[in-house]
Amino acid sequence: MKAIQQRAKVAQKAAIDAGRMLLNNFEKKIKVSTKKDGSLVTQFDIKAEKIIINSIKKYFPDDNILSEECGHDLLTSEFTWIIDPIDGTHNYIRGITSFGTSIAVKYKEEIIIGVIYMPVEKELYTAKKGKGAFKNGKKIRVSDKPLEESTMIYDSTIKLNQNEMLKGLNKLADKVFNIRMFGSTVRSLTYVAEGKAEMEIEFNDKIWDFAAGALLVKEAGGVFTDFIGKEEPWQKEQAYIASNKTTYKHLLNILKNIL
Fold first, then answer.
1. Looking at the DSSP assignment, which residues form a beta bridge with residue 225?
2. How many domains does the chain have?
3. Do 114 and 73 have their domain in common?
4. Residue 71: its pLDDT value, please?
């Protein structure tokens, strides 16, 4: 479908352009504001978002846009762009390199394009529905390691679901090999997609954080569902399991009654 290919090309360039701006300003003077939900935003979140939105509107002025900082721009198109200009803003503020730009495109109720750019590492992750997942043009795939050999990423805002997260961690901690937290959904999901970790468990992630990464994981041969096994359409805020197929059923069985 030509329309998908055109949007994928624009998404990739926009992600790289925004990422390069972020890298050029990394560890420079940052103005930090607090949003209504308590999360932080910088002038570079806004600037990166404008770079991406201007690219979209230049080529697809009638498409819908859902973005973390600007909210909704809902028109009449069946295409919706879902944008996180900096996923890992708190890392960016603190000079931690785990941050990236996420752009997904939804057609009707289904994510069909996912693009993630990690500026520090110069890693471009891309996926189109039914076409596989790629890192800098090279095909990637989830691992096939079993649960007992797995690296689990367990990375949500714990104060929002403290009891449930601690209960889940207690059930999983002795079943996996080790546990990591990166503070960035795009970093976590790209690691699952390329087999550097076997799973990410999230209790309260936003759709602009995970939309591109969800498609990436699935196109890399993995699984992405909520805690009861449901797939798309996704909610604006979502708990989920992103994993390889080897560990998924075990994780689902453990987590299905947590929330």
1. 241
2. 2
3. yes
4. 63
Quick one: pLDDT band at residue 63, thresholds 50, 70, 90? Answer: very high
68 is in an annotated binding site: yes
Q: What is the pLDDT of residue 159?
A: 78
Q: Is 84 annotated as a binding residue?
A: yes
- In this predicted model, what pLDDT tens digit does every residue of 66-75 receive, in sequence order? 997 776 767 7
Decide if pLDDT at 21 tops 80.
Answer: yes
Question: How far apart are the C-alpha atoms of 145 and 25, rounded to whole Å?
Answer: 38
Residue 237 among known ligand-binding residues: no
Q: Is 17 annotated as a binding residue?
A: no
Q: Let me know whether 240 and 117 are in one domain.
A: no
Does the pTM surpass 0.90? The reply is yes
CA atoms within 13 A on the CB side of 218: 20
* Cα dihedral 162, 248, 100, 114 in deg (nearest 10): -130
